[in-house]
Amino acid sequence: MINGGETFLSPDSPLLKRGGGRSPMGCLEVVYVRRFRTLPAYRRTPLIKRRIRNRYAISGRQEFPIYYLISIFSLYDLTEYLEYCIFMVMNYDCLPIIKEFGMNFVVCRGIFLFFGVIMVSACVSVYAETVLNVAENGWENGISVRREVFGVNQLHYGKDSYGFLLPNTKKVQPELVEMLRELGIRSMRYPGGCGGTHTYDWKRSAGLKGWYHGLGLIEFLRVCEEIGAEPVLGISAFRGSPEEAAEFVEFLNAPNDGKHKWAAVRATLGHPEPYGVRYVEYGNESYHGNHAVQPNEMVTPKEYGENYLKFRSAMKAVDPEIELGVVLEKTYWNRGVLETVGENFDFGIVHYYQKVRPTDAAEYAQNFAMMDGLEKQKAEVLKSVPEEKRAKMKFALTEFNANYTQHKHLTAALVNAEAIFFLCQNPEYFAAHYWQFVNEGFGMVRGETGNFVKRPNALMFELTSRHLQDRVMPVTLEGRMVENPQGVSLHTVDGETPPGTVTETEGKDDKNGNNAENVENTENAKRDLTPEDMEKNLLEKPRWKGMDREDRSRMEVLPDGTLKVDFVTDEPYNFYHVSTWLAVPEWNAVVFRLTAEARVEGMENSSGGALELGDGRGFTKTRSVAQTESVLSEKWTPISVDYYPLKDTKSLELKVRRMAGGGKGTMYFRNIQITPVLPTPIVKPVISALASVSDDENRLSILMINRSWEPEAITFYPENCVKGRNLDLRNVTAEMLTGDGPFVDNEGETPEVRIMPISAEIVKGSETKNGKTAIKVTVPPHSLVGVTAEIN
């Protein structure tokens, strides 16, 4: 094996029959592992590549992309010997062969590489293949693309708005304006998130109340005009008044005709013509209060809905075309808000952040859940929307991204590309905004003046916008599926602890000794889950700890074991202060299933009662939890959730939750069980694809995401993408977003993720199996590929 990894040589290899189990080169210990031969190709290939990369790293040599060639061979075990030889040659470890055969070093090296190229060419035709077709009547069933889904958040707070402005000025960095154009940005949201919206004062941001250090309203709107982007503006749900909001609309959209005071003010600031702003959001994530703003405030769904109607009425009195968005989230919040506003709202505002985790090849597919999550979120929101409103419901996804600890690498960009795919196929989303543009925590661009770098997500926007035409068509797919047989547990990569996790020794116990490191795990050796294990309740005797102030809430365990939590004040706050911990054995593949029954009394002004199961080290350390549905019924209601642990999870924490809202009331929980179960396999097509054609039918494009660690040969038949025309394609161009590994980033001096050209071929109908014109391209592992062709 190579540095402790599995061999890719067969037991009959001549190299294994020499030197007592060592290669004749003397540089690798070769041990045949039977299990390796039983693994599917997608498990073997990354092992080979990773061990080869380790070999280069250990030898101190520069990595060479020859391991991509080796991955081709390993797909079908075509030339194990050749794989070994190429690796040896590229590692400069072929001297024993040269000595044995009396060959010149340069000649030997050339021979190996010559035959390697021949074998690579031969192997291309035996790649696993996916066939894509535009569905029948593709043009008629196509969807017009809203370019505003290529949007970003811009922040009005932070010194110089985290580098968006030239230092100590109100001028936007010219280089960043050009980047916005390159990325295809067509919508921008402002003032951005909780930090910008909860205290937002439009008059201050317009420069009418003195200087401040962030991006101003005038400067933001100027950039929107310069790059042709639709502005989406926000106002606070915690300060201001309907009258102030009406003045804001007048400032933005009223004509400067001497009859509108705030239009005249706008003219004095250099913009006599109305801005024509159409979309405004009422608040940002208002369901969780105003965060750290003092004094702290919460708002109930009903209060938010009542305030929304007042603001909307005042704003539409000034400009009937203005549209005010309503904040939506979970069912408890949506139901209360929409029961109050009814059909009297213009569009729904949603946010979505997809968890992404470093994994091995077998578990890589679990990261690609963005489209499923967005579909589930849409369905949940529509449940609470009045039936007569559903057909004409409009959405703005004003924040989306991967999770905080993982957004910088290549896989996060591929996951976010799937968000773009989803949005293009769901026209009810009229705008979407990546969180967020430059620096801060999530910036898709990093750096300072003259030294800006596009992170993978910025490059994803650039490539996707370049290869997306005007009309998206449904695509059918036939090809390989990638399965995650081990569930979605987190695995370290090459022995490193992934970002966002902590080691066992990190952290200190609190004064009550409740930290996870204090919970002893007596079973250190990992083992397989047995049927007997799956019948156990790991929470037989919970030891609940109530750590909240008793003047706000009280905990009691009733004689029958029912847990009771009383809220004794009307104070609204996020409740998570009753918990218990338990140690868990280390199983090879496990999901922890939490089931219980819950009911509440007098909690109609809150999110209701729920349970949350997560890593025993706590959410702030691991960001790893799963929560049941919240209950607002006085009847006993079954609740459940599956928690997929981190690889190094040794203990679990179970919490009682009331996410938001307030009011006196009581939560009850009984029959609480935590049982280990086997994870449900995740099976997905290897390729996710989006086909589009220009309105003039002169250009055709296909965007593809490879959700595996192996190359995939693609044959795309675009026959149904135009109306009543035989396709004659020409001038095909293709490029890919790729890197040297699925979790590499552009944080170092040399960017590891880049856009590169790739070969694509137009195949005439006379040369294809079904007589139809096709485009053929081989999509590299973990990559985004865009192909565009002209139509004669």
Structure description:
It is a single chain. The protein has 792 residues and is α+β, with helices and mostly antiparallel strands. The chain is built from 20 helices and 34 strands. The strands form seven sheets. An eight-stranded parallel β-sheet has the order 3-4-5-6-7-8-9-10. Strands 2-13-27-28-34-30-31 form a seven-stranded antiparallel β-sheet, with helices on one face. It is globular. The model is unreliable at 1-101, 119-125 and 485-524 (pLDDT under 50).
Secondary-structure map:
Elements: H1 34-38, H2 41-59, H3 66-74, H4 80-90, H5 95-101, H6 105-124, E1 129-134, E2 143-144, E3 151-153, H7 160-163, H8 174-182, E4 187-190, H9 193-197, H10 202-205, H11 217-227, E5 230-235, H12 242-253, H13 261-268, E6 279-282, H14 301-318, E7 323-327, H15 331-341, E8 347-354, H16 370-384, H17 387-390, E9 395-402, H18 410-424, E10 429-434, E11 445-446, E12 453-454, H19 456-466, E13 471-473, E14 475-478, E15 481-484, E16 545-546, E17 553-557, E18 563-567, E19 575-583, E20 591-601, E21 610-615, H20 619-622, E22 625-627, E23 637-643, E24 651-658, E25 665-677, E26 682-685, E27 687-693, E28 699-706, E29 712-717, E30 729-739, E31 753-757, E32 760-763, E33 774-779, E34 784-791
Parallel strand pairs: 1-29, 3-4, 4-5, 5-6, 6-7, 7-8, 8-9, 9-10
Antiparallel strand pairs: 1-14, 2-13, 11-12, 13-27, 15-26, 16-19, 17-18, 18-25, 19-24, 20-23, 20-25, 21-22, 21-24, 27-28, 28-34, 29-33, 30-31, 30-34, 32-33
Helix pairs in contact: 2-3, 3-4, 4-6, 12-13, 12-14, 14-15, 15-16, 16-18, 18-19
